[in-house]
Design goal:
Belongs to the protein kinase superfamily. CMGC Ser/Thr protein kinase family. Lammer subfamily. Pfam families: Pkinase. The structure is a single chain. With about 400 residues, the protein is α+β, with helices and mostly antiparallel strands. It folds into two domains: about 100 residues, Phosphorylase Kinase, domain 1 (2-Layer Sandwich), CATH 3.30.200; about 240 residues, Transferase(Phosphotransferase) domain 1 (Transferase(Phosphotransferase), domain 1, Orthogonal Bundle). A five-stranded antiparallel beta sheet has the order 1-2-3-5-4, covered by helices on one side. It has a two-stranded antiparallel sheet with strand order 6-11. A two-stranded antiparallel ribbon has the order 7-10. Helix 5 runs antiparallel to helix 7. It starts with 6 loop residues before the first helix and ends in a 9-residue tail after the last helix. The relative contact order is 0.09. Bound molecules: adenosine-5'-triphosphate.
Length: about 400
């Protein structure tokens, strides 16, 4: 790892024998000069108005990396598929926006990635960092290239669920990765199907997926269930000062919403939300605001414990009546919101509706992961020992 400067800059400082103005380069030299020109970075151009690096497919990033396609985009930057001429492999390079806060956050992400890599024994299930460098004020993080995300798969299959056998395999690997991170005192804080990538892009097509319009579509299932975690941009060390709000809304634990502080258990709540989403095809808590979110939780999981309500932060008091009951449906912002909450079922019923085999164990595991009180929630290691994972079917 280290900072890789541009070839252009390096060659500028290197002394080369000067060609006389009237001496034409030999055939071989001309060929080499041309090849070098083709391999250098394009002339410097401005970033776009969001600070993203502007590129064309087929050109070089640095002379080492040739840009092949765009693989994704996030808040921090764009991820490009590139060919690494040195190692002769495809890689995914995250090119971070040239904005101070993203630049600084990327340096922290690199620290975390290196910490994860240092302790890696080949089983962590976390994406591998290959290299990093600063290119024209953009931090570039080079990763092993992975396939589509679990969310991409759900979307491609028109949000029809994964078979429970596959959910078991995903769940086990996901918990292994979370346990690995927690052992290193790291909390991911942004677990969601978008941040879980399949290692391979290969898939098998099966008939049988019915969409809401009742048309039969081809069901696309991954050929291999191997997955890896990505996006350590919000990962925190347990002993660090934490920002009070973390996680993407749908996967956010109740202790975060209530301002009670958070730690490792918030990752396990997210895992619970992810597993049920993989089994049903849709986000468990499809919401964008706190009161509705808490009402949805109560509908699915029963009343929030009083001791958590009593300790809720000042900002959360407005969600409760007489200090102990959720102000619902009185506090709802609209009828649609009340309807959206009513549409939800108890967790056990939801599992029974969508899952044929393993219902009991799956519902029991989910109940352990979705315990309101973080101190009662299963840890990653406890969840890995749950009977759901030892069943053969
Ligand atoms: N190693 C990889 N291989 C293949 N695709 C990847 C890889 N890493 C990231 N991607 C793709 O790029 C997208 C953005 O990556 P990532 O989530 O790390 O960026 P981000 O800017 O930190 O996102 P966010 O806004 O969620 O914080 C991912 O959703 C995924 O589609």
């Amino acid at each position: 790892m280290g900072i890789e400067t541009e070839e252009v800059e390096k060659t500028r400082t290197r002394k080369r024998p000067r060609l006389g103005w009237d001496v034409a380069p030999s055939g071989l030299e001309a060929h080499q000069t041309l090849a070098k020109a083709r391999r250098s970075s394009p002339p410097k151009r401005g970033d776009d108005h969001d600070g993203h690096y502007v590129f064309n497919l087929g050109e070089n990033l640095t002379p080492r990396y040739k840009i092949l396609s765009k693989m994704g985009e996030g808040t921090f930057g764009r991820v490009l598929e590139c060919w690494d001429r040195q190692t002769r492999e495809y890689v995914a390079i995250k090119i971070v926006r040239s904005i101070r806060k993203y630049h600084d956050a990327a340096m922290i992400e690199i620290d975390i990635l290196q910490h994860l890599a240092k302790n890696e024994k080949g089983t962590s299930g976390c994406v591998q960092i290959r290299n990093w460098f600063d290119f024209r004020n953009h931090i570039c993080i080079v990763f092993e290239k992975l396939g589509p995300s679990l969310f991409d798969f759900l979307k491609r299959n028109k949000y029809s669920p994964f078979p429970v056998g596959l959910v078991r395999e995903f769940g086990h690997q996901l918990l292994e990765s979370v346990a690995y991170m927690h052992d290193l005192h790291l909390i991911h804080t942004d677990l969601k199907p978008e941040n879980i990538l399949l290692v391979s892009s290969e898939c098998v097509k099966l008939p049988g997926c019915k969409s809401s319009s009742d048309e039969t579509h081809l069901w696309c299932l991954p050929k291999s269930s191997a997955i890896k975690l990505i996006d350590f941009g919000s990962t925190a060390f347990d002993n660090q000062n934490h920002s009070s709000i973390v996680s993407t809304r749908h996967y956010r634990a109740p202790e975060i919403i209530l301002g009670l502080g958070w730690s490792y258990p918030c990752d396990l709540w997210s895992v619970g939300c992810i597993l049920i989403e993989l089994c049903t095809g849709g986000a468990l808590f499809q919401t964008h605001e706190n009161l509705e979110h808490l009402a949805m939780m109560e509908r699915v999981l029963g009343p929030l414990p009083e001791h958590m309500i009593r300790r809720a932060s000042r900002g959360s008091e407005k969600y409760f009546r007489s200090g102990s009951r959720l102000n619902w449906p009185e506090g709802a912002v609209s009828r649609e919101s009340i309807r959206a909450v009513k549409k939800l079922d108890r967790l056990k019923n939801m599992v029974s509706q969508h899952v044929e085999s393993s219902r009991y164990f799956l519902a029991d595991l989910l109940e352990g992961l979705l315990k309101y009180d973080p101190s009662e929630r299963l840890t990653a290691r406890q969840a890995l020992n749950h009977p759901f994972f030892s069943e053969s079917k």
